[in-house]
Amino acid sequence: MDRPMDIWFSQLDTDNVKTSIRVDKQLYSGESDYQRIDVFQSKEFGKMIVLDGEVIFSEADEFIYNEMVVHVPMAVHPNVKDVLIIGGGDGGVARTCIEYQEIEHIDVVEPDEMFINVSKEFFPETAKGFDDPRVQIHNMDGLRFLRRCVDKYDLIINDSTDPFGHTEGLFTKEFYGSCYKALHDDGIMVYQHGSPFYDEDEAAFRAMHRKVYKSFPISRVYQASIPTCPAGYWMFGFASKKYHPLIDFNPVRWKARNIKTWYYTTNLHQGAFMLPRYVEDLLEEEENRK
Amino acid sequence: MDLIRQQSAPVYEALEAFKRKRVVPFDVPGHKRGRGNPELVQLLGEKCVSLDVNSMKPLDNLGHPISVIKEAEELTADAFGAAHAFLMVNGTTSAVQSMILSVCKAGDKIILPRNIHKSVINAMVLCGAIPVYAEAKVNTGIGIAMGVSLDEMERAMDENPDAVAVFINNPTYYGVCSNLKAITELAHERGMRVLVDEAHGTHLYFGTGLPISAMAAGADLAAVSMHKSGGSLTQSSILLCGPDFDSEYVRQIINLTQTTSASYLLISSLDISRRNLALRGKESFAKVSRMAEYARNEINAIGGYYAYGAELIDGDSVYDFDVTKLSVYTRGIGLTGIEIYDLLRDEYDIQIEFGDIGNILAYISIGDRIQDIERLVGALEDIKRNYQKEDADQFCGDFIKPEVVLSPQEAFYSVKESLDLDDTEGKICGELVMCYPPGIPILTPGERIDRDIINYIKYAKEKGCSLQGTLDPLVEKISVIK
User: Fold this and answer.
1) Per-residue pLDDT tens digits for B179-232
2) Taking CB atoms and an 8 Å limit, are A141 and B347 in contact across chains?
């Protein structure tokens, strides 16, 4: 039989727009204390992990996301030793970080142990980031972990995507304030900035920028095209105490490391910060708000 | 408690059965299951408006219950260990007022602490009772009134042997409990009734390791805010009656002021919540206690804040403490509770129950999740980091013993004039002045205004408290007896 099963996974981008992916088979379904976790096998996107109905990770496009949250700050900060990843239960960000020899320690704070175990089972290639001796996993709420951290990290990556689910607390003023406190004087925080395209995501997008802009002296936003994200368009935030993502960007130093990439290039680094007019306008409106 | 019987919810079941019959309505309410008011349906949902129906034979009548409401009241009494229970649809305010109207006539004395809810004073305006205040000690370290000590209660009873009742908060808004059982015994020896405001104490009937409830302590009447820790809809409440009180008389008193168009949304929410509490209350409140305890430890670890708990217990004016309450003294970081209350709402999108001059209270309930607690703790830490200031002023208020010159009723109905706050010294107050929340009066009708009180009102206004109760919305003028 070469006729595929007619099973479709649909992700609701808005009440009236959905992205559908034909599912070859469902590999896993479970309910943790925090969320529903599903793993699907699909043709174009390979294996996908879905949390509460949203694609968090697919084999086909995870490289874009992981490269953009790691390489961009690493090409700016001259000396990253200590990294904190909030969320990141799939291990993709940790795996990208361990390619950097100068990184000495990586804390991964993921409250949902089941998510980590499912990732290890179905995405061993990605989750091998957890096996590196420099990586330490903490099954704890991100806010709680951060409360005890002062002047400790060079780089914090907030790998949580959903400002409305159980990770809601990781998109708040108190979270950004805690990150500021946990960073060294020249530290950088990179975070998910969501997608600004649909009206219903716009308010969260604006609120996020407003909070970070108030919390950090340097706050810029950059973009990437990720097919499984709403509208295929995703933004990241770059918040920093000292280094500017373009002025302090050092392509020569970064290239010398010879890290293999599929998405990130030093040219793209600069282009990613060049935003469409409507996005710039949204951001500037929030910056000018009292 | 009969756990088999507690599984039923008679009002809820009658409403479900009624809905299935698809009866054509030629009675009120006029929206006719929402058809006449589509925007209301849009807002509240079809199911909700279709249950907004009038009293009728299959659904019983709250004013004179004989079938399903009667059964629901019996189940409620059984669940709370009371001889009788009344379902209330006009807030715990009406339950408190019904308690007072049930025991006091004009001129009767009632012994009570000063940190009572304004509904108590308003009931005295209605019935003409005279308040005799027992001093609730103020813990000057955190600036809140504690419970009333047994000695102080005994003194008040000895000095006023003609008092008809004593009135006690169990617990206070902040979680403090007096020695209710011993006070009840003392009062009963003297033939006085014991009325208990349990607006913040529904969970005491179901949780473990919590202070004693009014019914267990042998009190005569208790007003219980089911809509607070009990989970029912806002404005629904219950009034509990002990075994030695004429419940039919209480029903008559309730019917003096209760609506004859009681909402079935409120009544059914009481019915369902009672069932839920009876069947699952113990585990739910154990979880609430754990969350509050966790939050207390985390907040105290920040430094500067003081989230107080069972360590306040001294066997006297703090006979017991309700550990489900999360009250935090904030002056240690140089900010008033009101300032933190506003910052949490405006900067962190967190709404807490209230902030007063020295404290905040975050309400923890069966609806909370641990990740929300993390947000609250995280926000308090961030506030400390960003807004902490040096503030030598640690004043939080002290007990001001009021001089009662006239009964609240006489004062309320006297001829009055409106004077600037500063000109009221020595005058008799003609209205209520209070901070809201928590809604505890600073001045009540019939009390002499002195300089301390004027200064306190000014101080509270300066610190951003919302003062209410006066004819003048800005509380710059106060009505006094002419």
Assistant:
1) 999 999 999 999 999 999 999 999 999 999 999 999 999 999 999 999 998 999
2) no
- Report the domain count for chain B: 3
d(CA B83, CA B156): 29
Average pLDDT for residues B300-325, to the nearest whole number?
A: 94
Nearest to A141 among B347, B374, B379 (CB): B374
Burial class (CB in 10 A: 0-12, 13-18, 19+), A262: exposed
Task: Give the least confident one: A152-166, B74-88, B386-400, B450-464.
Answer: B386-400
The answer on B254 and B295 residing in a single domain is no
Which residues lie across from B240 on neighbouring strands? B85, B222
Q: How far apart are the first and last CA of chain A?
A: 63
Q: Along chain A (290 residues), what's the average pLDDT of each consecutive run of 10 residues?
A: 80 90 94 92 94 89 94 97 92 94 95 93 91 94 90 94 68 89 96 88 88 93 92 93 97 95 97 96 89
Please report the sign of the dihedral spanned by the C-alpha atoms of residue B97, residue B103, residue B108, residue B109.
negative
Query: What integer pLDDT is reported at residue A16 of this predicted model?
Result: 92
**Residue B433 in contact with residue B475, Cβ under 8 Å?**
yes
What positions of A carry a catalytic annotation?
159
Q: Are B265 and B285 contained in the same domain?
A: no
3-state secondary structure string, B392-410?
CCCCCCCCCCCCECCCHHH
Is B398 among the domain residues?
no
B330 lies in which domain range? 281-387
Phi-psi region of A269 (alpha: psi -120 to 50; beta: other; left: phi over 0): alpha
* Full DSSP string of B17-38: HHHHHT----SS-TTTTTTT-H
In the three-class reduction of DSSP (H, G, I as helix; E, B as strand; rest coil), residue B90 is classed as coil
What is the per-residue pLDDT for A289?
A: 83
Q: How far apart are CA B170 and CA B442, in angstroms?
A: 20
What CATH number does the domain containing B224 carry? 3.40.640.10
Query: Is residue B381 less than 8 Å (CB to CB) from chain A?
Result: yes
Closest CA in chain A for residue B294: A144
Please check the confidence at residue B460 and state whether its pLDDT lies above 90.
no
Per-residue burial over B364-376, b = 16 or more CB atoms within 10 Å of its CB, e = otherwise = bbbebebbbbbbb
Cα A259 to Cα A102: distance, rounded to the nearest angstrom: 13
Cα–Cα distance for residue pair B240/B85, rounded to 1 Å: 5
Q: How far is B370 from chain A (nearest CA, A)?
A: 9
